[in-house]
Amino acid sequence: MRSRTLYGLAAALALLATACSGGSGTAPAGTAAPAAPAASGFPVRTADCAGAETVFDAPPSRIVTSNAAALEMLLQLGAGDRVIGTGFPPGAGTVPAPLADRAAAVPVLGRTVIAKEKLLGSGADLYVDTFADMGAMGGAMGAAPTEQEFAAAGIKHVRLHSTACADRLKGPQQDLAEVEADIRRLGAVTGTAARAEELVAGMERTVGAVRTALAAVPADRRPSYFFFDADAGTKQPMAACGRQVANAVITLAGARNVFAGCEGTFKPVSWEDVVAADPDWIQLGVRNRGNEAETRKAYEQAEAFLRDFPATKGLRAVREGHFVRIGSEVTTIAGVRNADTVREIARTVHPGLAVDGR
Predict the structure, then answer these.
(1) CA-based diameter of the chain, in Å?
(2) Model confidence over 280-312: pLDDT tens digits?
(3) Distance of alpha carbon 71 from its chain centroid, rounded?
(4) What sign has the CA pseudo-torsion 15, 88, 166, 79?
(5) Do residues 245 and 147 lie in contact, with contact meaning Cβ atoms separated by under 8 Å?
(6) Tell me, which fold does domain 2-199 have in CATH?
(7) Global pTM?
(8) Domain-by-domain residue ranges, the chain?
């Protein structure tokens, strides 16, 4: 179980680490941060994965994020001007155009995991963590600060429950409730609760239209679906399991994740397992390469592998050309755009259905 957890975490980190953007540098200790909004609605209490509470008496003014997912959430919430640094920066083209310039301007404190000393010395008053505790990774990523060290540095620490706490869920993620709760939680903590409600309402409208369109489609007519993480390598496939955000996205889109039953979030499986599942559709899990031509090339290479590889060329989805070209980031990483991915997958695997509410 321990090795499986480590493997899954490593896969998650690989998936979250997109090609780095041009922004770099550190957040100078004396750099002034924009003033946080008035402390309406405070104090705010939020719990970590184990239920331990953190209390905010006022909104934070100097925020560091562990990766691009947390950064994008804060940008969407309108709190991006208070982010003074990030790890795992977003790659070119991975953040929506209206937010891209602001994302690129955020100092990069670590191309992967932020070094402990740099994080504790960043001057942050809040660290938003997308990841689970990586202490079990040993020295591979460097030691993470303890909660006592965060407190001594004056940094409050919150996590995205939909990703960092996913292994603690009692069952699979089959809707976006955990993602929406993360957005609301960050909205409350940063004093942008009204904006959080707007974002969640928009997500629910999008998913609601898909749900309405799918109401007449019985369970046995919902196609089986395999998320092929092409960027994780082709030697051994990596499955997106039931507790991964992707499972919720696939389920809401009216498909059946063929690996919904595996434990945790990610798990290495065999090509024999994929052949046994014989999915109706395969999503080509490709990260944005920073420009349209390179991203299209990556999709084409992933599809060519499945068509040529002896173990997969006879799969139903491959024979029928049932490939879904939607980026890994918006499928497996928690965010506002998960709802749009639900709609795009539904459009593809259920052609003819009015999934736009029209």
Answers:
(1) 62
(2) 999 999 998 888 999 999 999 999 999 999 999
(3) 11
(4) negative
(5) no
(6) Rossmann fold (3.40.50)
(7) 0.87
(8) 2-199, 216-349
